[in-house]
Structure formats: C-alpha cells, structure tokens
Specification:
alpha/beta, eight-stranded parallel barrel, two-stranded antiparallel ribbon, 15% strand
Length: 367
C-alpha cells in the first residue's frame, strides 16, 4: 500500500463556501431505491450514510420536493413532517461520524407516470412533450406518461415547492442544499429548447429558459444564504428520458453560469458528459470552457478514477471530485483511495431496491 497524499491535495481539507470539508472527495447523489411509498428515511438510511461520512461532503440522493415532483417509487421526500424527522436521523448520524451532508432538491418534471402523481394526474413539464423510457412504480417498470405544460401562473408554486423543501432541509439538520438542475429533470427541461417550446416569459430566448432555474436558486439562497447552496448541471447528458441537448449548449449554459455567479454559490457540481456512461461530448461543446466561466468552487463528476481526479486537480480544472458508484461497495472509499487499497465492486443487482443486503453490509477494507 502506498500513501497517495504526497501526489495531490485531494485528501487535504478545503472549503466550499461555508462548508468546511475534511477532504476534496465528494459522495455523489446515488439513488438506491430503499424507501417506502411514504418516502421517509429511517435507521437503515442513517447507518448507510454514516458509514460513508469520511467523504469530505455527502450529497444525499436526489430527494423529491413534493408529491408532484416524484418520478420513481422507493425514493425519499422532504415535504412532510415525517420525512423531515427521518432525515434528521440521517444528518445526526452523519454529524456524529464527523461528516457533512447536503440535500439535493429534486423535481422530475415530465419523467414520471400518472401512478406516481397525486390523484393520478399527468406529470408537469415546460411543454407537453413526452419523454422516452420507463420508470419504476410499485407495479414494476411502466412507460412514462404524457406530461402537461405548466401554466405561467403555476410557476410561483414550483418555486414555492423548492423553497419549502429548502426550509425543511434546514429543519432536518442538513449542512446545505444542492439545487438539482441536471439530468433532464424539471429545471433542465426548462433550460433545453428540445423540451421547452413555450412562448411565455419562461420560454423562447435563453434568458427566458434560464428564468425558472434562477428564480429557484434565488429562493433557496434567500433561505440558506449563498454559501450553503450548490447547484448541479449536466449540459449534455441525455438521461432521464433520452432528452436531446439544447441546440446552443455553450450559449445557454454559459448564460446560466454567468447569471449564477451573482449568487456566490458554495459550488457548481457538474456532470462532465453523459451521466454514468461516457465523458464524451458533442462537437462544438467544451465543458471546461463552461466550467471556467463559474467564479466559485467546482466539483467534477462522471466516470472519474483516482488518476483522472489527480490530473484534473493538478491542472486546476476541479476543486473537488465526486464519486458515485464507487461509494456503494466502498464505505471507506476515501481511505482506500488515499492508501492505494483495492476497491470492491458492487454487482448491479445491489444498486436498487431491497434492504440492508448490498446496502449497509459492505465491510471496510482490511488494514
């Protein structure tokens, strides 16, 4: 075993806004589908996150901000009192283990099914354009439903859903929140002209398509303060829904990032390529050029290994690196990476659903 620390500062303390981190290794939000239909975390989830508290920062799995925001069964929420109390168990356990944890605030938009929506209503979206693919319900996988376009006068209600979730995250003891504007979910659907065909003040121009994301960010910053709020973007990932990218990725996300700079956010969490599949990008897209427009700390995400993380950190292209799947089977991932220890590999069958097996029964590495 070899101590990697002399080669990099990834294992040294740092700060993302007001978040004081023990190292620059971030646990990415990883959906594990181990919740009841009430979306309430309990002691199993507290154990899982506490086991991984040696990460400099944990971004908890994407968490539904409202019943309308749900797109998958067996995922957590943060709109009800019971959910807040459940998350308080989780944050207390992480803090007792010396960790930091933020809540990722999630509204799926069009990627849902009527079976998951209140009163069997259609999912909501910028425009009535159906996504591709299936989503998971209590009856198994089913095709996503045709969404309905949100009315202009419904937009303050969407912002209010994010604001309620942000306040609840405070009450639940989180150290901050991350606005989920990535992975072709609701805010990303508004950003992309492939999914946003609106003609009101939330559609058409780049400025209009960025409006909802900026309104949501402002509302969350008003609650938390800018130095405890991050945002996640994924300019080219097609999933969820096999969603085409915006026709002018560089201009659209460049405008958004420049506007986000006025908030002095804690960090920008960036999916570099297609989520969990490839780091390749379409012709004419330069994600590092977009990254360079952001004035604050930058978390690189997507198919990183330690060598890539060290190299991109040495080049000044990342301030921290997020690992997702590697944390599933390696609760002590930071130590394993730092000491050059072998990494366990989780079988895909353990990713989603079930109980403790494949979730909290991964042992730390032998000394």
């Amino acid at each position: 075993m070899t101590d990697i620390s002399p080669r990099t500062d990834l294992f040294s303390p740092t700060a993302l806004g007001a978040l004081q981190l023990a190292n620059r290794i971030v646990m990415a939000p990883v959906t594990r589908s181990r919740y009841g239909e009430d979306g309430v975390p309990h002691d199993l989830h507290a154990t899982y996150y506490a086991q991984r508290a040696s990460a400099g920062l944990i971004v908890a799995e994407a968490t539904n901000i409202s019943p309308q925001g749900r797109g998958y069964a067996a995922t957590p929420g943060i709109w009800s009192e019971a959910q807040v109390a459940g998350w308080k168990q989780v944050t207390d356990a992480v803090h007792a283990a010396g960790g930091k944890i933020v809540s990722q605030l999630w509204h799926v938009g069009r990627f849902s099914n009527v079976a998951l929506q209140p009163n069997g209503q259609a999912p909501v979206a910028p425009s009535a354009i159906q996504a591709e693919g299936d989503t998971y319900t209590t009856d198994g996988f089913v095709p996503v439903s045709m969404p309905r376009a949100l009315d202009t006068d419904e937009m303050p209600g969407i912002v209010a859903q994010f604001a309620l979730a942000a306040r609840n995250a405070q009450r639940a003891g989180f150290d901050g929140v991350e606005v989920h504007a990535a992975n072709s979910y609701l805010l990303d659907q508004f950003l992309r002209d492939s999914t946003n065909h609106r003609t009101d003040r939330y559609g058409g121009s780049i400025e209009n398509r960025a409006r909802l994301t900026l309104e949501v960010t402002q509302a969350v910053v008003d609650i938390w303060g800018s130095d405890r709020v991050g945002i996640r973007l994924s300019p080219v990932t097609p999933d969820a829904g096999n969603t085409p990218p915006d026709s002018t990725v560089m201009a659209t996300y460049g405008h958004l990032i420049q506007q986000l700079n006025r908030f002095n956010l804690a960090y920008l969490h960036f999916v570099e390529g297609a989520t969990a599949t490839s780091r390749s990008v379409p012709d004419g897209v330069d994600l590092d050029a977009l990254r360079a427009q952001f004035n604050g700390p930058f978390i690189g995400n997507n198919n990183y290994n330690l060598d890539l993380a060290i190299a991109r950190r040495a080049e000044g292209r990342i301030d921290a690196v997020a690992f997702g799947r590697l944390f599933i089977a390696n609760p002590d991932l930071v130590e394993r990476l730092q000491r050059g220890m072998p990494l366990a590999v989780a079988p895909r069958a353990s990713y989603y659903g079930g109980g403790a097996a494949g979730y909290t029964d991964w042992p730390p590495a032998s000394p």
